[in-house]
């Protein structure tokens, strides 16, 4: 089947962490934000907000809170994507908020908005990387960005003109990801092939070489706590209280 520009852009996605000093033109940034805002919205609730951060001092603090990710400071643009039910409460003070379903809706809708923004940016020759590290200390991030109750910072996004373009990272094969009619048990033979593919990919990289498989990474990642403070923070912001 013939490829088109949209499909090529999607399949060539890679995380960009090194940027030139060139700024993003105002009209391009506006178009990226318009594309983000055009994402699907559950029941047309439109429960997402984007915080554009330009102050160097705030960028520096966010980079620190995200685990010392310097590109949060160096990228031409840094956006923080938030689930936001605060505006709904302003419209309807008696709004029934705090339901876990609303947390899921907020996370899904905001992720769709982020993906729209990333694809739009990449289609214009820009690059970017998602920053989940802002959830390392969401309370301080909320204070730094003056986020009120019922607003949840989900992820950041660095955008800019790429200075280095890495190889795309191989994804799991569709034979593992896509299930027919009902959930299928993991195909260990297919997983072994993928692990070998990932090992070869890491060995071939020009920098940050690793000697590990995807399965080894999963064992390491899921053998330790994953931000155990998050539930208390969510509840404190008015999310998932019921």
UniProtKB/TrEMBL annotation:
<dbReference type="GO" id="GO:0016491">
    <property type="term" value="F:oxidoreductase activity"/>
</dbReference>
<dbReference type="InterPro" id="IPR000415">
    <property type="entry name" value="Nitroreductase-like"/>
</dbReference>
<dbReference type="InterPro" id="IPR016446">
    <property type="entry name" value="Flavin_OxRdtase_Frp"/>
</dbReference>
<feature type="domain" description="Nitroreductase">
    <location>
        <begin position="10"/>
        <end position="161"/>
    </location>
</feature>
<comment type="similarity">
    <text>Belongs to the flavin oxidoreductase frp family.</text>
</comment>
<dbReference type="Pfam" id="PF00881">
    <property type="entry name" value="Nitroreductase"/>
</dbReference>
<keyword id="KW-0521">NADP</keyword>
<keyword id="KW-0288">FMN</keyword>
<keyword id="KW-0560">Oxidoreductase</keyword>
<keyword id="KW-0285">Flavoprotein</keyword>
<dbReference type="InterPro" id="IPR029479">
    <property type="entry name" value="Nitroreductase"/>
</dbReference>
<protein>
    <submittedName>
        <fullName>Nitroreductase</fullName>
    </submittedName>
</protein>
């Amino acid at each position: 089947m013939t490829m088109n520009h949209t499909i090529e852009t999607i399949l060539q996605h890679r995380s960009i962490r090194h940027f030139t000093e060139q700024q993003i033109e105002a009209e391009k940034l506006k178009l990226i934000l318009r594309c983000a805002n055009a994402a699907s919205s559950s029941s047309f609730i439109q429960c997402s907000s984007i915080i554009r951060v330009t102050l160097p001092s705030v960028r520096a603090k966010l980079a620190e809170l995200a685990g010392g990710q310097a590109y949060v400071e160096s990228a031409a643009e840094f956006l923080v994507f938030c689930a936001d039910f605060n505006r709904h409460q302003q419209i309807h003070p008696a709004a029934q908020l705090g339901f876990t379903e609303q947390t899921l809706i907020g996370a899904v809708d905001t992720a769709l908005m982020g993906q729209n923004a990333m694809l739009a940016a990449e289609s214009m020759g820009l690059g970017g990387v998602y920053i989940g590290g802002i959830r390392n200390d969401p309370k301080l991030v909320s204070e730094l960005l003056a986020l009120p109750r019922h607003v949840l910072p989900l992820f950041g996004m660095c955008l800019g003109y790429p200075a280095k373009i890495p190889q795309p990272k191989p994804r799991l094969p569709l034979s593992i990801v896509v299930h027919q009619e009902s959930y299928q048990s993991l195909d260990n033979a297919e997983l072994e092939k993928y692990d070998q593919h990932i090992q070869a990919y890491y060995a071939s990289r020009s920098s940050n070489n690793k000697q590990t498989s995807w399965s080894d990474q999963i064992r390491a990642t899921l053998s330790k706590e994953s931000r155990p403070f998050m539930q208390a923070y969510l509840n404190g912001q008015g999310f998932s209280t019921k």
